[in-house]
Design goal:
21 strands, alpha+beta, binds zinc ion
Length: about 425
């Protein structure tokens, strides 16, 4: 081959490579997902297909069925009477709804009367029913349900390929740590991106901001969880989930010289026939190149997502290197929006009232903020004037929570 021809081919390949990279850089899409859901495989009160249908019908793109200490695998038959009991007489019979939605041919029952049983389908069996269209996927997961000295330690494992048996620990923090390490160990061994998030820290008042801060393996926690029993707002003496985030992030940056935590919003849904623990309250919006489990998990791992309970962004530019956050809110009819930029200024880390203070209040749809030299970090909470349609606490409004931007120079080099 002549030299000129070789050069031409080389230039052409560079040209096409550029087009490919440019396209893949542009092709970042937003996907809506719930990372925390319970079904009949543990203590939820509906069949996984019925739950998946709810999420798919409500414009979610991905769902993690995160039952307690179990993956939806293997043969499991359940007594029909026991299933109906979980409905607590609310709504139409669970089995009847299941059959009328998916057809008699799909549903497997055996036995008669009080001994009648129905088989729970595995995730593998139900995937094709929902994933065929390419607009919805399942990410396999488990709520690794553990405790230390009576305090619940619940960690969701996302994109797991094997069940994780809860790992014991010698202290609360050790217990938290060991379960995250178990997820990480599986991820490394199977060479698959996986993620773990610490759930509802205030459930049973078990995990404090200090605990969250000091377990450095912890990268994600639930800043909002739709279960009404998890003390989201805290009480007179104890901080709510948002404040916990600010206290933990301040300790991480000012004292431990470590990365702050990312915040997840989820449902933790259990009740699908009415009842208190409903689906559709909190979710994440993830920016990823494709709707595939690895792509979603990798994006979340790099902080490319936000939590929502009703507020969405048209565009969100979060640049950790430049220290900037910029977004436009997707406005609902007649709704007004207030964005609070929340953070901690350097020197204030030991003044409780100024940890996680409001650094700026911005009204309207467009928001822009840049990290100042005297700030450890900042994040944004957007609150709409619209009431949450399915509130988990009194007076709940629709909200969104961005991930923090922080002073990277404060981080100790690993
Ligand atoms: Zn839990
Ligand atoms: Zn749960």
């Amino acid at each position: 081959m002549k030299l000129e021809k070789q050069l031409l081919l080389f230039l052409l390949s560079v040209f096409y490579l550029n087009i490919l990279t440019a396209n893949s850089a542009e092709k970042q899409l937003w996907f809506k997902g719930n990372t925390h859901t319970h079904s009949l495989w543990s203590d939820g009160n509906d069949f996984p297909e019925m739950i998946a249908k709810f999420y798919k019908d409500n414009s979610y793109h991905f769902l993690v069925l995160s039952d307690h200490n179990v993956l939806s695998r293997g043969e499991k038959w359940m007594n029909v009477g026991a299933i109906e009991k979980r409905r607590r007489t609310l709504g139409v019979a669970t089995l009847k709804k299941y059959i009328s939605t998916f057809g008699q041919d799909w549903v497997e029952v055996r036995g008669e009367d009080k001994k009648q049983e129905v088989r729970l389908k595995t995730l593998k069996e139900i995937r094709p029913k929902f994933e065929r269209g390419g607009d919805f996927i399942f990410i396999e997961g488990e709520e690794i349900t553990n405790s230390f000295g009576g305090s619940p330690v619940h960690t969701n494992g996302m994109n797991l390929k094997e069940r994780i048996v809860p790992k014991k620990g010698t202290s609360l923090r050790d217990t938290m740590r060991n379960n995250i390490i178990a997820v990480r160990e599986q991820s490394l061994r199977l060479k698959k991106p996986m993620l773990s998030h610490l759930n509802h820290p205030n459930f049973g008042w078990s995990i404090t901001a200090k605990d969250l801060a000091h377990v450095l393996e912890e990268k994600f926690f639930e800043v909002y969880n739709g279960h009404p029993g998890i003390n989201h707002l805290g009480d007179a003496k104890r901080p709510g989930d948002e404040k916990i985030w600010d206290i933990a992030n301040t300790i991480r940056l000012a004292t431990l010289k470590s990365d702050p935590l990312f915040g997840i919003s989820s449902d933790d849904s259990h009740n699908y026939h009415g009842g208190d623990v409903k689906p559709g309250r909190g979710w994440v919006m993830v920016q990823a190149s494709s709707l595939e489990e690895d792509s979603i998990v990798k994006s979340m791992d790099s902080g490319n997502f936000y939590g929502s309970s009703g507020v969405h962004f048209k565009n969100l530019l979060r640049d950790q290197k430049k220290g900037t956050l910029e977004f436009e809110i997707e406005a609902g009819a007649g709704a007004e929006y207030v964005t609070k930029i929340i953070g901690t200024r350097k020197g204030n880390e030991n003044k409780p009232d100024l940890v996680g203070e409001t650094l700026a209040t911005i009204k309207g749809k467009k928001v822009k903020y840049k990290l100042m030299d005297n700030e450890w970090y900042f994040r944004a909470t957007v609150t709409s004037s619209t009431n949450h349609p399915l509130p988990s606490f009194n007076g709940q409004k629709e909200q969104a929570w961005t991930q923090p931007i922080w002073d990277s120079s404060a981080i100790r080099k690993k």
